[in-house]
């Protein structure tokens, strides 16, 4: 219930109430979360990175297909697969020199996790990372 109480300019009180019924979402695109890496994590371009995510389909359907993208022009698919609804999935990404080229002092990149449910509805989550390189 939402209630509002107030007083007008002449000091007279008043109130109103409204009942609201909140229900769980039962349809729509998946809810996508990147678990790892986290925002502003440092990325060693010659190391490996654990990619971990979860996607929940409000419809409760499985499987959910997913793909990890390194955002750019064009975007680069770095991994893909499928998972059961609302179950975490992970994999290891070892960047190539083409994916994370040398840049004096390093630079920011965006990693995106896209998920597609059984109804072909798509949703995504993004995380900003920082690729570490030495200063030139």
Description:
The protein is an all-beta fold and 136 residues long. The protein is built from no helices and ten strands. It has a five-stranded mixed beta sheet with strand order 4-10-9-6-7, with no helix packed on it. A three-stranded antiparallel beta sheet has the order 3-5-8, with no helix packed on it. It is elongated and about 70 Å long.
Short descriptors:
136 residues, five-stranded mixed β-sheet, mainly beta, 50% strand, Immunoglobulin-like, single chain, 10 strands
Brief sketch in words of this structure:
By secondary structure, this protein is an all-beta fold. It has no helices and ten strands. The chain has a five-stranded mixed sheet with strand order 4-10-9-6-7, with no helix packed on it.
SSE order and pairing:
Blueprint: E1 2-7, E2 13-18, E3 31-36, E4 42-43, E5 49-56, E6 64-70, E7 76-83, E8 89-93, E9 107-116, E10 122-131
Question: Count of helical segments?
Answer: 0
Question: How big is the Rg?
Answer: 22 Å
Distance between the termini: 61 Å
**Helix amount, in percent?**
under 10%
Strand order of the largest sheet: 4-10-9-6-7
Task: Report the sheet with the most strands, covering strand number, pairing sense and barrel closure.
Answer: 5 strands, mixed
Order of helices and strands: EEEEEEEEEE
According to CATH, the homologous superfamily is Immunoglobulins
What's the CATH class, please? Mainly Beta
Strand count: 10
Strand content: over 45%
Poorly predicted runs are: none
Class of secondary structure makeup: mainly beta
CATH architecture: Sandwich
| Cα shape | elongated
Give the rounded overall mean pLDDT: 91
CATH fold label: Immunoglobulin-like
Number of domain units: 1
């Amino acid at each position: 219930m939402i209630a509002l109480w107030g007083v007008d300019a002449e000091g007279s009180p008043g109130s109103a109430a409204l009942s609201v019924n909140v229900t769980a979402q039962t349809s729509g695109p998946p809810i996508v979360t990147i678990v790892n890496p986290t925002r502003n994590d440092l990325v060693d371009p010659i190391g490996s990175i654990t990619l971990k995510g979860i996607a929940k389909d409000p419809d409760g359907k499985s499987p959910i297909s997913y793909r990890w993208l390194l955002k750019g022009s064009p975007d680069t698919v770095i991994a893909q697969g499928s998972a059961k609804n609302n179950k975490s999935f992970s994999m290891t990404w070892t960047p190539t020199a083409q994916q994370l080229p040398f840049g004096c002092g390093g630079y920011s990149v965006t990693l995106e996790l896209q998920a597609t449910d059984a109804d072909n509805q798509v949703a995504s989550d993004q995380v900003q990372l920082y690729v570490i390189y030495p200063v030139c």
